[in-house]
Specification:
This protein has one domain. Helices cover 80% and strands 0% of the residues. It has four helices and no strands. Helix 1 packs across helix 3.
């Protein structure tokens, strides 16, 4: 599961729409899951992806 999220969230050559929907899906999963290790593993390998997710979550939580 974490590998799938990693690929979908990767900044490399993903269309903006795919990246955005993936970020929304990941945020929902992260909020509801009991499997925190999947969340952490999904963004652990790539610093750019991790920063993109953090930035997205910051904007979402501010807008809520």
């Amino acid at each position: 599961m974490s590998g799938l999220f990693s690929r979908l969230l990767s900044v490399d050559s993903r269309p903006a729409l795919v990246r955005h929907v993936s970020l929304e899906m990941f945020a929902s999963f992260a909020e509801l899951t009991a499997h925190e290790s999947v969340v952490a593993d999904s963004i652990a390998a790539d610093g750019d992806t991790r920063q993109t997710v953090v930035d997205f979550l910051s904007r979402v939580s501010v807008g809520s």
